[in-house]
Structure formats: C-alpha cells, structure tokens
Amino acid sequence: MQGKWRENLIKIKPYVAGEQSNDKDMIKLNANENPYPPSPQVKKVFEKYAQNSDGLKKYPNSDSIILKDAIAQRYNVNRNNVFVGNGSDDVIALSFMAFFNSDKPILYPDITYSFYPVWCSLIKIPYKTIPVDENFEIHAEDYYTENGGIIIPNPNAPTSICKPLDFVIDIVEHNPDSVVIIDEAYVDFGGESAVELTKKYENLLVTQTFSKSRSLAGMRIGFAIGSEELIATLETVKNSYNSYVMDSIALEVGTASVNDEEYFKECVNKVIATRERVRDELIALGFDVKKSATNFLFATHKEYSAKEIFEYLKTKKIFIRYFNVPRIDNYLRISIGRDEEMDKMIAAMKEFFI
Amino acid sequence: MQGKWRENLIKIKPYVAGEQSNDKDMIKLNANENPYPPSPQVKKVFEKYAQNSDGLKKYPNSDSIILKDAIAQRYNVNRNNVFVGNGSDDVIALSFMAFFNSDKPILYPDITYSFYPVWCSLIKIPYKTIPVDENFEIHAEDYYTENGGIIIPNPNAPTSICKPLDFVIDIVEHNPDSVVIIDEAYVDFGGESAVELTKKYENLLVTQTFSKSRSLAGMRIGFAIGSEELIATLETVKNSYNSYVMDSIALEVGTASVNDEEYFKECVNKVIATRERVRDELIALGFDVKKSATNFLFATHKEYSAKEIFEYLKTKKIFIRYFNVPRIDNYLRISIGRDEEMDKMIAAMKEFFI
C-alpha cells in the first residue's frame, strides 16, 4: 500500500547561501565573514572548559542573562530591552513570528536580504516588496502605505548603502500601527545605529549580529534591542519554540567578545580602511562601486559582465558573490578580506581585463 | 497618537521549564539532566580552540557533516538519513513545520511532553490528545483514527513508561497516510530504539537528544533519523529558518561525544543502577513507582500529597518536579542524580514522613 503521507510534507523553496569550500588555499570573499579572528578574550572561555567541562551536563541559563547584561551595558539599555538568539537569522525569524500577525502584507525592499521571502513563506506571512530606485536607494515615503509590518536592513545588503537616522524616524513615525524592524547586521562598519531610537519608539526593533563585526560567524550569536513589550513578546515566542537555544559556550564567548571594545574597534577600523582603498582601486579599474557602510562592496563594471568576472575569479580560487536575480544580475558583492587577499583579487581582475 | 501595532503581536502561552537556581548547594533533580560530566574527549575540542579560535570567524559547515557522519556510523545508517539540530526541541519543532501540514488534527497522548501543544499553537497545527489509560499506558489502537500526523515519546515523559517495538510497528502500519514521529529523548536508559525500523518505514522519524544520556544539555544537540525523503524535507525547512543553527563548537563536541561509546555506556549504566536502587527504596517508603526506562522516576505516595513532598524537599534545597495539571497532580517526577544526591533525597523524605 502506497501511503499518502507525502501530501502532508511542506512545499517550500529554501534560502541558498554562498558557496562553501574546504579548500584551504581558496580566498573566500563571498559570505561577508570578517578576515580577522575573534577577540583573544574568547580563548579564555575555551581554556576554562578545557580544564573542566562538567557544567555542560546542565541546561544553559534559558534567560541568557550574562550575555544580555553585557550587551545592555555596551549599548546603554536595560536587560529587559535585550533579546539574544542563535544568529540574527534566528532573532529575525522569531521576530517575524512574534510581530507580523496581520492579514496585511509586510513591506521590505525588492533588493535586500534574500531570507525575508523565505521566512514569509515558512511562517505564511503575506508580503509586498517595495522597489528601490535606479540607484538602489530606499525612500521612506514608499513605506507610507498600509502594512502588517516593515523590515529594512540598514545598511542594506547587498547594496551596501546606508540611510541616515532621519530615514528611520520618518518610517517609524509614519507607521504607528506596525512593528518596524531595522536589521543592522552591518551597521558597525559605518552606519548609524537606531538603538537609541528604541527608547522613544516602542514599536521599533533593532537587530544586530556577532557574525560580521565581531568575527564570530561560527558561534551563532545575534541580538535585538527594543521596548520591554517587544522583547517580552520575543521571549514568549522563543520559549514556545526552543527555550534553550543559546548554548552555554555561545553565551560565554559572546560575553567575552562584547566586553573587549578595544579589539572590536581595531578590527572594524582595519576592515573599513581596506574597504576604502579597494573601492578606489576598483573604480580605477572601471567599476562603478556604491559608497559602502558595510564589510563588502557592491560593484558593476562598465565593460565586463559581472557573471564572467565572478567565474574567472573562481578559476583563480577567489570566491566573490554573484546573484543571478533581476536588477542586480550585472553586480558583484565582494566581502572585505585581509589586504593581501584583496590585492590578489585586484591582480586577478587586472589579468582578466587585459 | 496611540499606535495599533500591539494588535499584530502574537498571543501565545509559552512552555514553562523546571525551576532554575544558581545555588551551588542545591540538589537539582528537576530537569532530567545527567549527573555525570560529558565524555572527557569533549575537553580536547576546547583545548584545540583555546590554542586557536580563528576558525570561528567563518560560518559553520551548514550541512553539519562531521556530526552527521559520526551519528550515521554509530546508528548504522547513512549521512542522508541523519538530521541534526539545536537540541531535540529544535529538531521536533522543525519536524512539526515540515511534516504536519494538513487540516486534520495531529495526535499525541494527553499525558506527555508539554511542549507539543505549544508548538501546535505557534505553528497553527490542529491537534487532538489521546488519553493514556488509568495506568498511563498508551494503546496503539487508539491511534487507528484519521489524523494529520502522530508524535509519541517512547519512553513517554513524565510517566517513564516504555513500549516495545511491536507497538511502534502497529502505529506506523495503521497510519500509512501520516508521518509518525517517535521522540526517543530517554531511550538510552532502557528503551528499545526504533531507528532500525526507519529503514523499512519511509514515514517514520525517530528523534533523540545529547542532553540526557550524553550529558550535554548545555551544548544543545539533538538529531533525527529517518528516510532520505523525510530528512531532505527537514533540511529544506531548516535552510528556510536558520541555515547555520549548529555552531562550530557544538558540531565538534557532539562528534567527540558520539565517538566515545565506552564512556557513554558506563554513564548510562551508572544512572540505571542508581534508578533501580532508588525505585526500590521509594517503594519501601510507600510510593507507587512506575517501572522506568528513563533517567527519572514517576511516583505517587499512598498517604502523602505529591505537592507537599515537593514543597518540603524544596525547603531542603532538593528540587524535584511537580506538575500541577489534571490526572498527574499527585505525582512526582524525580530525575536520577548521583548516589549521594539520591540518598539525601531519600533521607529528606524519611524526615517528612516521620
């Protein structure tokens, strides 16, 4: 007898991440990872557990208090204004479940993080994308329309473009009936954070990640800052999905990282310096490159096709990101690596252009 | 202007976990944690990262290959039959999303893991609970009814009762139109695993956890074994929710644990020996105690109220679990700790009974 159980399986198109490779020689500029290691303070956590790992037999603190307190202190808010999760993907997915319960469509830019439509599909949330303009700029007035919620990355990805705080205020003030999420995954590389605005606007949630500016993509730590009511709702959803999502090691590693402000600034500044230099070099090579407030550059070449450049670099074991999607199918997203990695990429491009 | 954004917030009742405490003197027998530390092999992972934690700047392997391969080898299946997640709560929540997409109610016992109704509420899945009998036994024929899916823990919690594999076969064979999930969180302490049956029944999924028998509650590792089709669907849902849910450390710690079979068996056998001794002592004290195939005992006293015993023990800094819910509100769930912890609990009970 052939069962009909297959009829109950979900039908969904998943997110496709940047290519992975185990090749040690490859130059990986396709996942917006940080080229510098995490804070050396992180090692102390591992030294402690190398001495004694008995504590792992117990469940982690489900309120993630040590990490929340460290973040609250760093960002000048209270513990009850902080939510932490397994990467900002987890934080944003839970936020979609928590805040986007309406029959009206949620709004986000047409060119943006490609996980948003996937979450909408998974959680069955109606959505409408708002086109960015021909320069990939987002305009606040396009969001003065009825909606069930708004999410905008600032800086946006993969465009790298950052909007000023006035833009966020404009959006929030025109949308008192919606929760507005500002996804600040890249804000540390040059954007202006809206965290302070969450003290004034109870319907504003700001999300950030430890994966980029804190070099901890491998550890899966993200957080949100918002009003006590938004955070309490997020906690309820988390406790209805997986109470202990943050493991004990991630909590301690995250705490060690947040507490090392000096190292954090040093790494971020190195990435910014490399970015600006490489941007100038790409422009000199004939690229049009957006002004970036992130740890990547968004570029298109006047003569050569993005796809061909992408494929040529791949033969040289240099991986950058190419999106075969409308409007940006002649653009490249290039993560900022170490100076010598970027030099090799520039050299390979020059070879290709000869 | 007062915004209406609150109308879009989710309304839901979260799962309530066992009480936590930071008191080092407390005897914690309320969360079914293992009293023994994880495998000593786990420390080698931390030693490695204490030397060099640079790798954490990169995203983890999103396919979790090292851990899947270790589990596949241990359980005699292929990599494509294994799914891993952030604790079995994550694995089961994703399974609800992946497999329970029907208008018909899913079925599970009325007395069981209290997270199931919470997930149904979060993911909007209709459900119907099937009463266990007056001895808390589950009967397969009660599940010969139309449904959108079935989940049964075996052994069941908090009853500690285990059913033989014939019961699982009976359920699966009578439900060819549904995915059947057997939640084996406690199976290592005396149950018979249905993993081998997944080779025959494509609609059977078995879930397990590293939190109990492998002493890694703090690390958040769970897994599922099933047909390639079920596992591929789970992977799609995971990649639509959070592609990198397993952090790099959890993947390596889990692998080290699975590969140390000898230590695993030694710990499980110690817990079982303590459980059997304590069960006899509780019976001698006037308790009715179910035959347990788990790392906890489910007990009711002929004369004294469960709630009062629970509260008395708390004053002695001994935490066991009491559920103030219908049918089991005169029962206690007692996790198996070290022998000396159990002796203190028995001594405290004797004090109370004098």
TrEMBL record, chains A, B:
This enzyme's EC code(s): 2.6.1.9
One GO MF term: histidinol-phosphate transaminase activity
Residue ranges of every copy of the Aminotransferase class I/classII large domain listed in the record: 24-348
Keyword hit for Amino-acid biosynthesis: yes
Sites bearing N6-(pyridoxal phosphate)lysine, chain numbering: 212
Pathway given in the UniProt record: Amino-acid biosynthesis; L-histidine biosynthesis; L-histidine from 5-phospho-alpha-D-ribose 1-diphosphate: step 7/9
Superkingdom to which the source organism belongs: Bacteria
Keywords assigned: Amino-acid biosynthesis, Aminotransferase, Histidine biosynthesis, Pyridoxal phosphate, Transferase
Cofactor requirement: pyridoxal 5'-phosphate
Record's catalysed reaction(s): L-histidinol phosphate + 2-oxoglutarate = 3-(imidazol-4-yl)-2-oxopropyl phosphate + L-glutamate
Pfam families: Aminotran_1_2
Cross-referenced Gene3D superfamilies: Aspartate Aminotransferase, domain 1, Type I PLP-dependent aspartate aminotransferase-like (Major domain)
Keyword Transferase: yes
HAMAP family: HisC_aminotrans_2 (MF_01023)
Family: Belongs to the class-II pyridoxal-phosphate-dependent aminotransferase family. Histidinol-phosphate aminotransferase subfamily.
Subunit structure as annotated in this protein's UniProt entry: Homodimer.
Entry protein name: Histidinol-phosphate aminotransferase
Gene for this chain: hisC
